[in-house]
Specification:
The protein contains ten helices and eight strands. The protein is globular, with a radius of gyration of 17 Å. The protein has helices spanning 19-36, 45-52, 57-68, 74-95, 102-112, 125-134, 163-172, 186-194, 209-221, 234-242; strands at residues 6-9, 16-17, 97-98, 116-121, 146-148, 179-183, 198-202, 226-228. By secondary structure, it is α/β, with parallel strands linked by helices. It has a six-stranded parallel sheet with strand order 5-4-1-6-7-8, sandwiched between helices. A two-stranded antiparallel sheet has the order 2-3.
């Protein structure tokens, strides 16, 4: 039976309903990049999300470079990353909402003091902080326990690279096997699992039940140990892990 001491939460579409808003905001910029490189393909927000869900914009741009066979300089890529960050943050500050039932569960966890709480995201730190501040979740997390694969590491990366989870565990001072991660995407699940962390597959942000079941099966096949359909099931999911 594992001794769990810390819970590590993904942010986008796990704590905050932000993925659709973010991809809508950055689709125009992605299309500007494609146009500048003479690529005829254009993305809508949902199409960009389908191709690159769980990745930060740096990962999206690198993915487009590979898919459409063009190359940006490191300087130009980082310029686009900063532009996207500004656009998305403005959108999130105006429109972001918490995942249904999440704030109530965070409040219970925070008051119980049973576990240490942290946020571990692929997104830029400014974006993560803007998201959790907008939905009144920042009060549940120590400022130095909010981690970004795009910002917190010496070399920026994105999930499914496990580096950001390993970095978070090192900073917190906890072994990965004593942590539980909550993730909603394949890239996030792989990142946590590859770091040696017990992982809950959260699918409550998928409105279509058939899609939620499909994603749940996919996340379990990639190493998640339990599925959570709604935040009200969190205690039950933790009990299952702690009984393994």
């Amino acid at each position: 039976m594992p001794e769990i001491t810390n819970i590590l939460f993904d942010c986008d579409n796990t704590l905050v309903l932000s993925e659709e808003l973010a991809f809508e905001a950055c689709a125009d910029l992605a299309n500007e990049i494609l146009e500048s490189k003479g690529v005829d393909e254009r993305y809508t927000g949902p199409e960009l999300m389908a191709d690159f869900v769980g990745q930060n914009f740096r990962g999206v741009v690198k993915g487009m470079e590979k898919k459409y066979n063009f190359t940006l300089t490191d300087e130009k890529r980082e310029e686009y990353v900063k532009m996207e960050e500004d656009r998305v943050i403005a959108t999130l500050k105006a429109k972001a909402q918490p995942c249904i039932g999440c704030n109530e569960e965070l409040d219970k966890l925070y008051k119980s003091k049973k576990y240490g709480l942290a946020v571990v995201s692929s997104s830029a730190l400014r974006r993560v902080v803007a998201s959790i501040e907008k939905v009144d979740q920042a009060k549940y997390f120590p400022k130095d326990h909010i981690f970004s694969a795009a910002t917190s590491l010496p070399t920026p990366t994105t999930k499914p690279d496990p580096a950001i989870y390993l970095h978070a565990c090192k900073v917190i001072g906890v072994e990965p096997k004593k942590c539980v991660a909550v993730e909603d995407s394949k890239s996030g699940t792989l990142s946590a699992v590859r770091a040696g962390i017990w992982t809950i597959a959260y699918v409550g942000s998928y409105h279509d039940q058939e899609k939620a079941k499909e994603v749940a099966d996919m996340l379990v096949s990639n190493g998640a140990v339990v599925v959570m359909n709604h935040w009200s099931e969190f205690d039950e999911c933790m009990a299952k892990i702690e009984a393994m």
